Amino acid sequence: MARMKFLCDSERCIECNGCVTACKNENEVPWGVNRRRVVTLGDGLPGEKSVSVACMHCSDAPCMAVCPVDCFYHTDEGVVLHDKDMCIGCGYCFYACPFGAPQYPQSGAFGQRGKMDKCTFCAGGPEVDHSEEEFKKYGRNRLAEGKLPLCAEMCSTKALLGGDGDVVSDIFRDRALKRGKGGEMWGWGSAYGKPEPGTKKPEVKS
Amino acid sequence: MKQLKSNSWLWACLLAACALVLASAHAADAPAPPAQIQAQAQKPGVTPAHNAEATWREVRAGTPGVTTVRGTETGVLVSPDGNTWRQIRHGPVTFYGSLLVILVIVAIALFHSRKGMLRLSEKPTGRTLVRFSNWERSVHWLVAISFVCLALTGGNMLLGKYVLMPVIGHTLFSWLAGMGKFIHNFLGVVFSVGAVLMLATFYKDNIWHPSDAEWIRKAGGLVSREHVPSRRFNFGEKIWFWLGVGLFGLVMIASGLSLLFPNLYETRHAMQTAEVIHSIAATLIFCMSLGHIYLGTIGVEGAYQSIRTGSVDETWAKEHHQLWYDEQVQKKLGKGA
Amino acid sequence: MSKFAIALLITVFGLSACGDKEGVVVYKQGSYSGKTDGKPWENAAFAGDKSKWDNSIRARGQNQNESKRIGD
Question: What is the pLDDT of residue B6?
């Protein structure tokens, strides 16, 4: 059984925000909601890194644990989805999520939270596949068309990978091996990084 | 109720707490780039050795990056405090909170079964004194009714998943919780206004008086069933007023209002903190209210009528609030003369 | 005696491997009981053919592997 995962290769992401735009267009998300965003670390400095982030479809999903009405479920593909008819817009999943994935369109007189909206891994929701209802509430169900999320499929540098976790990790492992050892290897910077300016070399006793 | 699953969660909590401390320590220079990258930037011409660990450590600690997506904290890639909030709310707050409520209910039930209703020892005279004006009663019931609705709908948010949902099912429960959230949001504002009016209306009669010392010494005669003379409100009522309405009420209002307007661009951390404070204060104020409701209904004969109709029998006044009774009699005599 | 002790040690050491937990991810389910969601292959496009859907997803997944798609 496929376990759906996203992986963003920060060595490749060029912060083009194509995934963000593609997601909005494909799913026609509510106003003010961004299911996906690109975050740049150390922007404008040498060694800056960009990462595209959305719902990571956790195995032990905090949103699912804290939901007071239990509107979340895992599909057999490991995608975390929710029933918008049950959602009460309390905001607890937003508090609990480390990635800031759950978002709310504003509704009502005082800008109250509407029904929560988040990345569905382009898998729609608990409505009849490809129905008007499903598209309106959850966006496109590409998975039921045998396709992967558009953000990953259209990524120009193939930084954002999506799909079966095994396939995605194989692709990434291949890629990392071909790039060879170096700065991107875990622990390389700590082991061989240059000393901080101003620090003295330890004196060798003769 | 979710218990801490294993030590790893504890470590995660500790780490998150450390990260929070670190993050707040660096809050002042938050927009500045991470130290590692700064160090690299200081050496122009040298190809920076990308230090993946340093970068990801910053990410894990919740250091914000740059993003084109507008909104609060959209630059934060991984926010570490969500898990801390989840552990606190679904651990001690839920567990000890519900335990405390159950203990208080059991204690009141035991007390009532042992002592029964506190009845008047003398016959009612038939002459009545005005104890609460129309305004005072209106304020009381505004606060009381909104409080009960808030307590039920709020308690449902915290415990309904464990208590009500298994009984009535998911669909009905989610509809009920949705209505509850709506009611909670709007009545919260009503309660806030009512509580402020209540503080303004009753504060004069709740100021410390030397006779309260005796009340404390005799524990209000709650157990001994002794009548301790008091003025309009005894010290127990004063505790409820200042601690229940004054302290916890205002804490509830402040934390509640900040949760009511999610579009005020608050950080998640602020909302998580407000939520935990709101739940803890709610549990405490609810336990206190159980005592107040008990004494105001089946605990003391004639107490409910006093707030319902506004007037009390002279015997009741003499037995429960003797100093107040004396004052009233003095006033009447003064007027008559 | 010493042989017995060594045998015991080896047995204990060997048995300790049984305490090893499987590293397989277990999806923690909430107690969701809302509308049931159909399988992604139970629709007009796949007519319930799971292997056809699997193949399609796998092919799409491999499309992301440019070193296979266009060669190194």
Answer: 42
Residue A175: give its domain's CATH number. Answer: 3.30.70.20
Cross-chain Cβ contact B50/A183 below 8 Å: yes
| CA-CA-CA-CA dihedral for B296, B300, B302, B303, to nearest 10 | -20
Residue range B84-107, pLDDT digits in tens: 999 999 989 999 999 999 999 999
Residues B69 and B117 in one domain: no
Cβ atoms of residues C40 and A76 within 8 Å? no
- Flag whether the pTM goes above 0.90: no
Packed helices B134-163 and B268-294: angle between N→C axes, nearest 10 degrees: 120
Which domain-ending residue is among B28, B62, B79?
A: B79
Nearest to B130 by CA among B334, B301, B292, B321: B321
- Among the three residues B64, B79, B94, which one is the final residue of a domain in this structure? B79
pLDDT at B8: 45
Count of B–C CB contacts within 8 Å? 8
Query: What does residue C21 show for φ and ψ, rounded to 5 degrees?
Result: -90, 150
User: Which domain covers residue A171, as residue numbers?
Assistant: 4-183
Residue B165: list chain C partners with CB under 8 A.
31
Contacts of A104 in chain B (CB under 8 A): 262
Residues B272, B187 share a domain: yes
CB atoms inside a 10 Å sphere around CB B57: 14
Region of B138 on the Ramachandran plot (φ > 0 left; ψ -120 to 50 alpha; else beta): alpha
- The single residue listed with the structure tokens 């071909």 is A178
Nearest-by-CA chain C residue for A130: C43
Asked if pLDDT for residue B41 goes beyond 50, the answer is no
C72, pLDDT greater than 50 = yes
3-state class (DSSP) for residue B68: coil
Considering only CB atoms, which chain C residues are within 8 Å of A73?
A: 29-30, 32, 34, 37
Question: For residue range C13-64, what is the model confidence (pLDDT) as tens digits?
Answer: 988 878 766 655 566 676 787 788 888 888 888 888 889 999 999 999 998 9
Task: Yes or no: say if A11 and A184 are a contact pair by the CB < 8 Å rule.
Answer: yes
**Nearest-CA distance from B157 to chain A in Å?**
6
Out of A66, A89, A193, the one facing B90 most closely (by C-beta) is A66
B6 to chain C, minimum CA–CA distance in Å? 14
ipTM for the predicted complex: 0.83
Contact: C32, B170; criterion CB under 8 Å: yes
Give residue-wise pLDDT tens across range A89-141: 899 999 999 999 999 888 766 667 889 999 999 998 898 888 999 999 999 99
Tell me how far apart the alpha carbons of residues A52 and A146 are, in angstroms, rounded to a whole number.
23
Domain ranges, residue B16 = 1-79
Backbone angles phi, psi at A149, to 5 degrees: -55, 140
In a domain, A196, yes or no: no
